[in-house]
Amino acid sequence: MSEPRDDERPVSGPASKVTADLEARIARAQAQRPADAAAEQRRQGEMSGMSRGFRLASEFAAAIIVGAGLGYLIDMFLPTRPWGLVVLLLLGFAAGVTNVVRATREMNEATAVPADTPALRDDDEDE
Questions:
Q1: Over the stretch 63-114, which tens digit does the pLDDT of each residue have?
Q2: Of 6, 10, 100, 126, which has the most beta carbons under 10 Å away?
Q3: How many whole angstroms from its chain centre is CA 114?
Q4: In Å, what is the CA distance from 87 to each residue of 67, 70, 84?
Q5: DSSP tag of 116
Q6: Are the C-beta atoms of 96 and 58 separated by less than 8 Å?
Q7: Computed over its alpha carbons, how large is the radius of gyration of the chain?
Q8: Are residues 44 and 88 in contact, defined by beta-carbon separation less than 8 angstroms?
Q9: 23-40 pLDDT, tens digit each
């Protein structure tokens, strides 16, 4: 068997300056990590209108294309032409609408107004 490693740190000499510098840099990097993570989280929560639109459109189109493709393949191998395509196209449409509703709900929750935000006074003349 091999001898156990000596895990003790040097306490004096030229190596202590190097390790002290290394420890200081590590401490600075670890202190900066939560701030970087919080900034990244805020950046991801703030999608532009164009990126939201592309996300919703791509999810909707993908569901319809997958449904139509599967329906076409089923019609190729089974004598159900055109019912496989029609039924799965409609299912793809329904799945696309469901995906858009789910994604919209997620985006709205990600940018929700905090509960402690004061309400604005209504400018309408309701009296």
A1: 999 999 999 999 999 999 999 999 999 999 999 999 999 999 988 887 777 7
A2: 100
A3: 20
A4: 9, 10, 5
A5: T
A6: no
A7: 29
A8: no
A9: 888 888 888 887 777 766
Say if residues 90 and 98 touch (Cβ distance below 8 Å): no
Task: Map out the domains of the chain as residue ranges.
Answer: 49-113
The amino acid that residue 23 corresponds to is E
Q: Are 52 and 27 in contact (CB under 8 A)?
A: no
Task: Tell me the H-state helices in the chain.
Answer: 14-45, 49-77, 83-110
> How many residues are present in the chain?
127
Q: In degrees to the nearest 10, what's the CA dihedral of 54, 86, 101, 42?
A: -30
Taking the C-alpha atoms of residue 105 and residue 56, their distance in angstroms, rounded to an integer, is 11
Name the 3-class secondary structure at 18.
helix
Six-digit token string for 26: 């590590």
- Which pair of tokens denotes residue 65? 């294309």
Nearest partner of 87 among 101, 75, 99, judged by Cα: 75
